[in-house]
Amino acid sequence: MPTYFPTRFAQLTTGLVALSSLGLAPAVAQNKPTAANTITVQVNKPGAPIAKTMYGLFFEDINFAADGGLYPELVKNKSFEIADNYLTGWKGINGAAALKTYTVISDRPISATNNHFARLTAATASPDAGLINEGFRGMGLKQNDEYTFSVYARRGPGNVTGLTVTLEDEKGKMLAQSQVSGLTNEWKKYSVVMKPSATAAKGQLRLALNGAGTADIDVISLFPKDTYKNRENGLRTDLVQLLKDMNPGFLRFPGGCIVEGRTLNERYQWKETIGDVASRVPLINRWNMEFKHRSTPDYYQSFGLGFFEYFQLSEDIGAEPVPILNVGMACQFNSAELAPTTSTATSGPNAGEGHNHADDPTLDTFIQDALDLIEFANGPASSPWGAKRVAMGHAAPFNLKFIGIGNEQWGPQYLERYEPFMKAIKAKYPTINIVSSAGPSPDGELFDKASKRLRELKAEVIDEHYYAKPDWFRQNVGRYDNYPTTGTKIFAGEYAAQSVAIGSPDNKNSWDCAISEAAFMTGLERNADKVVMASYAPLFAHVEAWQWTPDMIWFDNLKAYGTPNYYVQKMYSTNPGTTMLPVQRAGNAKNGQDNLFSSAVADDKTGEIIVKLVNYSTEARPVAINLQGVKKLGKAGKATVLASNDLNAVNTLEQPTNVAPKEESFKVSSSNVTYTLAPNSFTVLRIPGKR
Question: Which residues are within 8 A (CB) of 535 and not within 5 positions of it... i.e. 6 or more apart?
Fold first, then answer.
């Protein structure tokens, strides 16, 4: 995910028939297609196979995507480890009038990594002697669902016998209450299951001392039992289901600029995100203060969702895991800090970009992290890092095939670090496919130099990013037509049409953006011999805690919905086919001419021809599809249509399917299929017919 700069915006942006009650055009054309609207699908001249990874997902912890989103822990700052404000998320009940003191200290902590906790002291017994946790813009609590509350606690001087645990709604009304008793002088974990009596979108957790005196509390958790596959440290069910429904070919994680960090100290370090959840040390999220118009100082990463959970999620949704690792460079839009390439490096500026220090980790440290990650994912139980995976409950390897080195870095600093990374990985793991970076812009001198050098190094996959206005996507549908067909392949790793401007808080997930992306994707599919991976970005956004727009899936504490962009992606990823089929317009018209876009694939598993069509027009458009050389043609096909007369239409929590696909069948009487495309529509036709 790029940081917004005006210069970058300039770089990226250059370059009526009434519908039926279902909102679809009639299945059989009422008007004859013109010659210009005749499309020939060369079923008898199949092209490249469609990569199983063709359409996938890009996850980054931005917009509360992890904590407060996919990771359903409801307690914010559960371990009091946020260094700049140890009480983030917490406040004293009624101004803490009933507490003599409450503070965060580190006297005989639970562990060396979890070394801060809250100490509460009450002069007299009171039901108000305690703390309230606000959650992530509140806590989503569902009536009669079960939530596991747990806490590590110990008693100090006085006669505190336990804790009263209360779940409340936004007005302070009690929804559930339980007691924790039997506190001792040593740290001990206590847990109870709580069941709210009503639903609250903005609930809160209230903890109060029972008795006067002192008690210490730490690792305070409120976790729903309803998680995907009912895992103890599982993920939010509705959000995972939206991902699984897309049939994604891959999951790229954990970002994005989150990989880089504003400084190297703030970079994402995967080894800090595995093992015991209670021992994972949180880190401030690099998006917390990136945009002044969306300042979020309480945004941090708890790493409850860590690399093990990412691998597990990939497995659950049937996607290839594609982890991205730091290449020894902090975000170049921020500090541009560089890891020294040798241990003898000295502090000071590095060629005018970034700096390093003699005591920083060297590039070798970053390379070793990559090698260790591959062992963690694929190694046997007898290997040091494979043993850690097994200890976490996954005996079988994750079968990692891809690893990304750096996120949208650019310039000679990236290339000089990428090459030793590549050589080290290939020396030990020659079958691993490496994803490399062409930088944050889709063209220009730095892009050209990076692409040229990476191809010379025989990089398996180059990651290209583009955020631009909707018309850029329609105008660049032929972007990959002239790319080399052999050697290095392309990963369209981050893209999304921006309705206003890159990084603007006013961007919307409009139908105009989504249909323009659908048009662009016909160009990706037509070039399946060059493009092997593609993903919209970003993936998730909390409606009250976002930093970047637009985003594919929006949610609050209880509900979620897919945008029109989500449905475009889903229509591609659930209809990927197995083999690309060449498509021609009458008169050799270019793809996109007259705002008609098309691509086609064969699905050899089902025996169908899949044709994707975008009509970016305010009028219905009859088309004729000539299935050249098709065999064993069926009599009925299925049409999936995503359409709206309003290009500014969006989906919302209140109207989650305002723009959503509808299905109908249509007749197939010969190899010349006619169909009328609805105005402003994206249509997928599945036609039974073998090649």
Answer: 55, 56, 57, 58, 250, 252, 492, 493, 494, 495
CA 84 to chain centre: 27
The answer to whether position 31 is within a domain reads no
Three-class secondary structure of residue 150 per DSSP: strand
- Tally the domains of the chain: 1
Under the banding of pLDDT at 50, 70 and 90, the label for residue 292 is confident
Helix (H) or strand (E) holding 623: strand 621-628
CATH number, residue 203? 2.60.120.260
Q: Mean pLDDT for the chain? A: 92
Q: In the prediction, which pLDDT does 35 show?
A: 76
Tokens 């210009």 sit at which residue?
Answer: 36
Residue 106 lies in a domain: yes
CA dist., res. 273 & res. 89, Å (int) = 22
Nearest to 517 by CA among 491, 543, 542, 536: 536
Q: Which residue has the tokens 């591609």?
A: 572
Tally of CB atoms within 10 A around 350 = 16
**C-alpha–C-alpha distance, residues 168 and 164, integer Å:** 13
How many alpha carbons lie under 13 Å from residue 484 in its C-beta half-sphere? 11
Among 408, 460, 464, 517, the active-site one is: 408
Contact indicator for 659, 578 with CB cutoff of 8 Å: no
| 7 within domain boundaries | no
Residues in contact with 275: Cβ distance below 8 Å, sequence separation at least 6, in sequence order = 388, 392
Mind listing the pLDDT tens digit for each residue in 348-369?
334 334 444 445 789 999 999 9
Dist CA 382 CA 129 (whole Å)? 51
Interior/surface letters 494-512, b for 16+ CB within 10 angstroms, e for the rest: bbbbbbebbbbeebbbbbb
CB 234 within 8 A of CB 38: no
Does pTM top 0.70 for this prediction? yes
Section 561-585 average pLDDT: 98
Which residue range(s) make up the domain with 117? Answer: 90-224
353 included as an active-site residue: no
Residue 478 within a domain: no
Question: Strand, helix or coil at 95?
Answer: helix
CA-nearest of 188, 128, 132, 121 to 159 is 121
